[in-house]
Amino acid sequence: MTPNETQNELRDQLSQSQAEADAVASLLASHKSRRDASIDSATMSMSTRVHHALTQQTVSRPRFGFVPVASALSLATAAVVLFLSFGPTERPLTHAADTLVDARVDVSSAPSDVDGLADELVRRNSAGSDAWTITEADVDRLLGEVDLEL
Amino acid sequence: MLHAVTIHMTDSEGIEAEILQALRAGERDRAITTLVRRYQRFVYSIALRQMNHVEDAQDITQEVLLRAARFIDGFGQQSSLQTWLYRITINQCRSEFRRRRIKSFFGIGNDEDQIDVASSGPLPSQHAEGRDFDDYMQRVLAKLPPKQRETFCLRFYDELSYEQISAITGTSQGALKANYHWAVKKIAEHLKQSEFYAHWSTSHDAE
User: Fold this and answer.
1) Tens-digit pLDDT profile for residues A130-150
2) For B22, which of A35, B31, B43, B161 could close a Cys bridge (C-beta 3.0–4.6 Å)?
3) Cα–Cα distance between B146 and B175 in angstroms, integer?
């Protein structure tokens, strides 16, 4: 498809009078032209960004940061720790200490879990699997350890 | 007698063949460079439609192309490269919306995460009138049924053939043509009621 073919087809679809078709086609053509220029500008440095990211992991702005979520998980961990330490059930001190270690949530793994899930999704698709989209189970995989409901 | 055999190959198929050939020849960098250059506009255009935000769309585009570059060795060719990228982009956008849901659950969303339709428009140097019209078109497109909107966008903005759109969306070409026809009709009806149409008519009548 060329831009001219697209414009010609658009005109064919416009069965109004010639003047009306001219007006609509002209407005849409200008709009598309501005949009194309905007896309050209936005993607101008994309090759550099991708190659840079491939060699240096990432150059995108830190928008997907999971630090706040990790903080929330830390709070949940602290609550579990406090409950296990000072809860109503009496346990030997050694048992309590072991439980603390077992109960701790590794919050530092949260970002890699997200990336791991995303990578898995791409693998699923490249393998031709139908189960492509992110499921609630996938989200549960991220949040399930602390039993959070969205 | 030898007969000349002509292989009809679209531009997209030719590029895809070039990328896969480069991969088979062990020229991974060349394959990735070709992939990025050929499909960056396509991926960005879809991401922009989904996210309605320039910087978000740029980040999604980078992420999609990065993932495609990482996993292209395992690309199974059950679909075209373009279809594969389309699905990765849509899923990357959905994934981002889900991340926002999670962040929103924790009450840690910020203004930056809000949809910013205005900033998805044209460059600052462009005329205010053009910017207004582009914003207006966003609102008109939002009123279309999803299938008509996506068909119109893939056909008019991304300039894909019906065959390509059919491969991407899994909709028959006949249905796509009908969707496109109704989308154009509805857009034209909206436009005819708008100030932009009146302004265009007035200025051209004066000429």
Assistant:
1) 555 666 666 666 654 444 444
2) B31
3) 13
